[in-house]
Amino acid sequence: MVLQFVVNLNSEAYSHNVLEGDERKFRRSEMWEKEKLMLIKTSNFFISTIHNN
C-alpha cells in the first residue's frame, strides 16, 4: 500500500513533466534529483520497516 503510494508520486511527477513537454530539463533539474533521492530514501525506509515487523 505504502510502496504503491511512493510509485504513484513518482508517476505523477513524471506525467506532469511529460505533459509540460519539458522532460529532459525537468529530469536534470536539482529539484527532480532531490525528489528522486527522497522517494528512494522513503521507499527504503518503508521496506526495512515492513521487513522488521
Characterize the structure shown.
The chain is mostly helical and 53 residues long. It has one domain (2-52). It is 91% helix and 0% strand. The protein has three helices and no strands. It has helices spanning 2-20, 23-28, 30-52. Helix 1 runs antiparallel to helix 3 (30-52). The chain starts with a helix and ends with a helix. The mean pLDDT is 68.
Describe the secondary structure blueprint for this structure.
Layout: H1 2-20, H2 23-28, H3 30-52
Helix pairs in contact: 1-3
Can I get a quick summary?
This protein has 53 residues and is mainly alpha-helical.
Mean pLDDT: 68
Q: How many strands appear in the DSSP assignment?
A: 0
Distance between the ends: 15 Å
Share of residues in strands: under 5%
Kindly provide the radius of gyration, computed on alpha-carbon positions and rounded to a whole number of angstroms.
13 Å
Helix count equals 3
The class by helix and strand makeup works out as mainly alpha
How much helix is in the residues?
A: over 70%
- Which residues sit in consecutive blocks of at least 5 with pLDDT less than 50? none
Notable characteristics:
0% strand; mainly alpha; 53 residues
